Automatic annotation (TrEMBL):
It comes from Murinocardiopsis flavida. Belongs to the PdxA family. PdxA2 subfamily. This is 4-hydroxythreonine-4-phosphate dehydrogenase. The keyword Ubl conjugation does not apply. One of its GO terms (molecular function) is oxidoreductase activity. Keywords: Metal-binding, NAD, Oxidoreductase. InterPro entries: PdxA_fam. The lineage of its organism: Bacteria, Bacillati, Actinomycetota, Actinomycetes, Streptosporangiales. It comes from the Bacteria.
Length: 340
């Protein structure tokens, strides 16, 4: 791997805030950044974003990820060739925008699978738009799984160097609780420990969050901790893993940020999201684990209501790009661990 790795950056939906936060991030980073970013998009979408953001930046169209970067003030764009010069309305669901977003993901993923880039950084997509374009995937993660031939992926949030994993994700809370079992918890713990090792924690310290108030109060407030979570933690500990829990959710994330642990298994979507984003919204980024490629991502939507105004905060895209640069050194580990 080169000292300064190349990352393929997708803007997501071209009529959302993705193009704006991407050009702001790369213009700000310049040639002093720890990685070179090549945007995978239609050049016209970037030109439009540069204009609404009032940036003094030139877009250079490239046909290879291996070209040397130019000086500051230039953003390289690998043309996906979907929209051409078409100017779609900002902030509206459009099948053409969905096609452009899907094509960019396909191109960037192939580049990562071929080793042409160290990883990919993804901007926010609009699910309605990609479905309107003909895609049958529920979202980014499912699409990346299909493109890489993997069937099991998980999300790892990274905030201030600490990791949060999710035993369940895009389910109603009622359905998420119904999924909790000893086997499911055992799998979530093993996946989290593996990811922590892949991303540089050779002796990971993992905590498992409780699901009920006060950890269930010995069954008075629910028995998930007794029946399912504790047995799974004990199985992991019996194998020599440094796993603690179940720990009440009102304290476990404080312990994480106090460096008692390297990661936490959150029991459901909002349990982990609220903790991370309340602590540092812009600094929280998503890493998809289980793929044979590095993928970091913003963890917010397309913000159609402010798209095209040049006011979108690039903080999370900046964090995703910088974390991608940092994690690029693990690209070979990621490929080896999660190879299909």
């Amino acid at each position: 791997m080169n000292e300064r790795p190349t990352l393929a950056v997708t803007v997501g939906d071209p009529v959302g805030i993705g193009p704006e936060i991407t050009v702001r991030t790369l213009a700000e980073a310049g040639t002093a950044a720890p990685a070179r970013g090549v945007v995978v998009a239609d050049p016209a979408a970037l030109e439009r974003a540069v204009a609404v953001c009032g940036l003094d930046v030139r877009i250079r169209v490239v046909d290879s990820f291996d070209l040397p970067p130019e000086q500051d003030g230039v953003i390289d764009c690998y043309d996906v060739g979907v929209l051409g010069a078409a100017e779609l309305p900002w902030g509206e669901v459009d099948a053409r925008a969905g096609r452009a977003a899907v094509r960019a993901i396909e191109v960037a993923t192939k580049a990562a699978m071929d080793g042409a880039v160290a990883g990919i950084v993804t901007g926010p997509i609009n699910k309605e738009a990609i479905w309107a374009s003909g895609s049958e995937h529920l979202g980014h993660t499912e699409m990346l799984g299909a493109l890489t031939g993997t069937t099991r992926q998980n999300t790892m949030f990274v905030v201030r160097g600490k990791s949060i994993f999710f035993a369940t994700r895009h389910l109603s809370l009622r359905k998420a609780l119904d999924q909790i079992s000893e086997e499911q918890q055992t799998g979530a713990i093993e996946e989290a420990l593996t990811a922590l090792r892949v991303f540089g924690r050779d002796a990971p310290r993992l905590a498992v969050a409780a699901v009920n108030p006060h950890g269930g109060e010995n069954g008075a407030f629910g028995d998930e901790e007794i029946v399912h979570i504790t047995p799974a933690v004990e199985r992991a500990r019996a194998k020599g893993a440094d796993v603690s829990g179940p720990i009440p959710a009102d304290s476990v994330f404080h312990h994480l940020l106090s460096d008692r642990y390297d990661g936490v298994v959150s029991q459901y979507h909002d349990q982990g999201h609220i903790a991370a984003k309340t602590f540092d919204f812009d600094g929280t980024i998503s890493v998809t684990v289980g793929l044979p490629i590095l993928r970091t991502s913003v963890d917010h939507g397309t913000a159609f209501d402010i798209a095209g105004q040049g006011v979108a905060d690039p903080g999370t895209m900046r964090s995703a790009f910088l974390h991608g640069a940092e994690f690029a050194k693990f690209a070979d580990r990621i490929r080896a661990e999660y190879a299909t």
